[in-house]
Amino acid sequence: MAGRWETWGIRAINRPEAQSQQGSAKLSIPEAGEITLLLRAHREGDAAAFDRIVDLLYQELRRLASRRWRRDSSATLSATVLVHETYLRMRAEQTPDWQDRNHFLAIAARAMRRVLVDSSRAALAQKRGREQPRVEVELGDVSGAGGETSAVTLLDLERGLETLAAIDARLCRVAECRLFAGLNQAETAEVLGVSLRTVERDWQRARAWLRKEMSG
Amino acid sequence: MSPVDRAAVDGALAAALELEEAARSDFVTAVKQRDRELGAALEELLGFASTTTAETKFERDLEDLVGGEIRRWHAASPVALRAEERAVTSGRRFGAWRVVGEIGRGGMSVVHLAERADGAYQQRAALKRLTWETSDEAGRRRFQQERQILAGLNHPDIARLLDGGVDEEAHPFLVMELVEGEPIDRYCGRRGASIEERLRLFVRVARAVAHAHRNLVVHRDIKPSNVLVTEEGGVKLLDFGIALPVDPGASAAAPTRTLARWLTPDYASPEQVGNQPITTASDVYQLGLLLFELLAGRRAQGLRDASLAEVARVICEEPVPPPSAVADVEAARQRGLSMPALRRRLRGDLDSIVGVACRKEPERRYRSAEAMAEDVERHLRGLPVEARRHSVRYRTGRWLTRYRWPVAAAGLLLALLLAYTITVTTQAARLRHQIETTEQLSRFLASLQAEANPRSGGPARTRRLLEGRGQSLVATLRKEPAIRSELQTVIGKVYNALGLYPQAIDHLSAALATRRDLFGSEDPRTMATAFWLARTHHFAGHYVQAGNLYREQLAWRKRRFAPDSAEVTQSEDNLACLLHSRGEWEQAELQLRDVLRRRERSLGDSEAVGTTRTNLADLLLDRGRVEEAEAEYRRALSTFRNELGATNPVTTLAQAGLGHALALQGRFDLAEPEIQGALTVRRLSYGDRHPLIAESLRQLGLLRARQGWMAEAERLLRQAFEMHASLYDNPYVSRAEAEWASVLLDLGEADAAVRHASAALERLKREGLPAHPFGKLAREVNARAAVPI
User: Fold this and answer.
1) How far apart are CA A35 and CA A33, in angstroms?
2) pTM of the shown model
3) Which of B435-449, B685-699, B716-730 has the highest mean pLDDT?
4) Contacts of B241 in chain A (CB under 8 A)
5) Which of B221, B239, B351, B375 is flagged as catalytic?
6) Do residues B146 and B242 touch, judged by C-beta distance below 8 A?
7) Engineering a disulfide at A172: which of A164, B246, B357, B455 sits with its beta carbon 3.0 to 4.6 angstroms away?
8) Residue bearing the bigger pLDDT, B38 or B404
């Protein structure tokens, strides 16, 4: 009887055909090969694949994050952790090669950004009536010239990122990789297919722009 | 500002950031003169880009912002999920059980306190409800099967499975024996359990795991929180929740596949991270981690602060350290020992047991949990443990296969350890000492390997290791001259590779003297040490000593090897290179060409031929025959790339030479990547201070000079000279100094130029080589400086 079989638990949720037929909480994960195929398409220049992957990951990140919190609400949460765990899970299903990993993380960074911005906007919309705490950080002495600090929110950062994208899309990608996937500069360079030196310079510029935009 | 304007500002910003800090304000002024608005915007942005501390803070602020947003998102977690959580509240029934409270939450489940609800009898239990539903029939069936397997695990130290099912929302649940206890690490910590007590508890855990293995169940998630100890001191192993049955007898042939799951990186095995098949060996690894933690008081894989991008690499590649190396004062206090006593207690057997259990390759661990339990028991009874018999050879083997340093020490090391084992005498006390020293030695060598990996700190740490533990091992071995001389030879070679010649010469000379005494001068061991000492003297600029030793080596090799053998021609190559260093270029070229011809004939396309060819090319380059040199470098480079790969430091000898030859022909864009590429590999292999780094800086500086970037050239050539000068006293220092002087002169600093050119000539004279061709450039500088502009 104890032949070779796989456990019921996680398999069940990972299989598209096992998705709940009832309307209750959908635990869907993109079909195994889909992400791999999309990643490949994107690498081969299919720009639309990028958005499709972001869409898929968007769902996945939300799901993962909620589950993670239920497991351990005191756990240190960071975008990096979430994005990497998404990767680990995806990889367990699809075994992309190492090159795919950073590629994946870079795209997941975009999805993470979108998840957080959406949630932040929704929170803002609900704010009427009951005051919800806003997430802010004090950007101390942004101008570098002494004194002034200003409180900024994620939506300020989002505006900054949009500015970056308008100036040079790569600056925006670099910032996403650094802030939403926790990639270091070398990893970012690998992902974006540019030299480390380039990323260092890009990041320096991106930071300058962000500081300027977010302080204004 | 419109996007177009922004792009213009960004372009200016990019350009400004390329400049040295000092030059930026000039640039801004220049931009302002052309376009005032652009200049002002640029100035503002540069203000944001300038202060580095503010930048770091800014980055941290942004990270906080994103992190804070995630926490807020959590606080407002989806309503549906909250409702689902509320669904299981007190009083709800699951089959014959009623929930009366919540105990805790895990990655895939919530654990409730439950009691028997059908009135059959009074019993309390832990009810574990899984967070996902099994909506399909196949899933249900598999769950049923697993329940049966788990129910079959009847062992006093494994929490029993009492019941299970699927609730009306399709969530499976398991009802387990309720265990009142605390996690094993906390239990031991609170009671200040001694090492022996800890080991006894561990044996029970390992035996329970072994029982599960015999019943074809792999636990897969052994960690302190899954091992409870009751007030009475009994062990209970919990949570076979993700346990999977294994095929009978299929532990290797058809192992269970891993599943997608949350990793607990601190306790993950390499197979789990690598998505490899999970077998009972994975449990053995986790038992090793558990034992490590019980002994050392720390996690073996402390990945909490590691970036997750590093997790897989660390778990799969970085050896678990010996517990004795990480145990600290607090751990010692908790175990009722002083720190040195604790370390002594752990060293040897226990380090080895953990080491064997935690090997990265599953097939090299204990073959079963039972075998591990037995070994710990053997240790408790004072019997020799299995682990130690294997670990020395294992570690040596590992060292040999994985060592990637530019030191070809493999054969030597093996010889070292074998020699040591063979000389072991039968006297018990001495035996003990010998074994300990062998252990220490192999640990030292293993750490040398770990340190030599550039990613783990690299050359600087290797150096500290040599100066610390290396030195003390040498002292320990004072009554074992044979072994000591072997060790000192290894240390000397590593120092040589690090470019630390005085230290290398100290060790190699001591080793050579000992060996001449012990084995005589004809012995291959003596000559092996002599060979390295000769090379070290050569690099260090001691040409007389180097020459004598090279000639002795050649004579000896000629007696033992064929005239065109790799050995004899190597010695001849060495002597020819020595002539090159001494400035006797005519003779050097004749000899190198002869050696190259014979090596090509007898050895074919090989690293040896590539080396001689590179040596010849170096000479041709010095002689100004740039195109000939280029051709030889190209051939050597292709040989090295085939034989050694592109990132081997040896390959950079030809690569850097080629770059230099191209630069001298004005083919700058081709030259630059070769020179930079070689420099990168060299930095990874040798750190920041090494003759080859100095050489790369020199080549880069000469390239810049030819490109007309004189300030940059001056900086690089000065660095190259200073580095050469800090390493040794030889003609190469003078060459670098003269080249620097030449650029100084071009920059109009005639006084400094003359001073350094003269110093270069002075040095050559002092070295007894006043007519060395390297002096030519220095004399030219002096002559040019004397001509009034």
Assistant:
1) 6
2) 0.42
3) B716-730
4) 9
5) B221
6) no
7) A164
8) B38
